[in-house]
Design brief:
Bound molecules: guanosine-5'-monophosphate, magnesium ion
Strand order of the largest sheet: 3-2-4-5-6
Distance between the termini: 9 Å
Radius of gyration: 16 Å
Largest sheet: 5 strands, parallel
Number of helices: 4
Length: about 180
C-alpha cells in the first residue's frame, strides 16, 4: 500500500519554528517555562523546540522526558510495552508552565496518562500541550494548544513521524494500516 508525504523536512522545521514563537508569545517570554516530551519522538521534538526558543530568546529552557507507560488506562491491552526513562529537569516543575510535547495526538489517552504521571513530579502552575500532528478521533476532552498540522485521518490510516535523531530523515507520511 502506498504512502503519501504530508510534511517534508522544511515544513517540519517551519512548524516547529512557529510553535516555538507561539509558546514564547503565550508565555510572555521563557520565565517559568519547562518543556516535557513524551518518549520517544516527543522528547526529540521538545529538545528541538527548546533549542529554537533558546536561540530566539537567548535563554535556555529546561527540557524533560516523561514516560507514561505505567499510567496508561489501556496497559492491559499492551502488557509487553516496556517503560522508557523519565528524566525531569533538576529545577522540577513546581509552579512552572509545563508544555507537554508529543508527535501525534489521537485518542488523547496518552496525554491523560501524562497528566497523571506529571502529578507525581510536582504541581505546575499550568500545563499546555503541543503536538506535531493532530489526527483527530479524540476519546477524551483533550485538545492541543500548539499544533504543527491538523491531519484529518481515518482510523485505519497510520501516520509515520520520522525524525533525523531516530530515523535518519525528517518526514511525516500517511498510509493505510
Ligand atoms: P493517543 O494516546 O492520543 O491515542 O495516541 C497518541 C500516542 O500514540 C502518541 O504518543 C503517538 O506517538 C502515538 N500515536 C497514535 N497514533 C499514531 C499514529 O498514527 N502515528 C504515530 N506515529 N504515532 C501515533
Ligand atoms: Mg509517541
Amino acid at each position: 500500500m502506498g504512502s503519501r508525504t504530508v510534511l517534508e523536512e522544511s515544513e517540519i522545521s517551519r512548524a516547529l519554528t512557529r510553535i516555538s514563537h507561539e509558546i514564547i508569545e503565550a508565555n510572555k517570554g521563557v520565565e517559568g517555562l519547562v518543556l516535557v516530551g513524551i518518549p520517544t519522538r516527543g522528547t526529540s521534538l521538545a529538545q528541538r523546540i527548546a533549542g529554537q526558543i533558546s536561540r530566539i530568546e537567548g535563554t535556555d529552557v529546561p527540557v524533560g522526558s516523561l514516560d507514561v507507560t505505567m499510567y496508561r488506562d489501556d496497559l492491559a491491552k499492551h502488557p509487553t510495552r516496556s517503560p522508557r526513562p523519565t528524566e525531569m529537569p533538576v529545577g522540577g516543575i513546581d509552579n512552572a508552565t509545563v508544555v507537554l510535547v508529543d508527535d501525534v495526538l489521537f485518542s488523547g489517552r496518552t496525554v491523560r496518562a501524562a497528566l497523571d504521571a506529571l502529578n507525581d513530579h510536582g504541581r505546575p502552575r499550568a500545563v499546555r500541550l503541543a503536538a506535531l500532528i493532530d489526527r483527530g478521533h479524540r476519546e477524551l476532552p483533550i485538545r492541543a494548544d500548539y499544533i504543527g498540522k491538523n491531519l484529518p485521518s481515518s482510523k485505519h490510516e497510520r501516520i509515520s513521524v520520522r525524525l533525523v535523531e531516530h530515523d535518519g530523515v525528517d518526514e511525516v507520511t500517511i498510509s493505510q494500516d
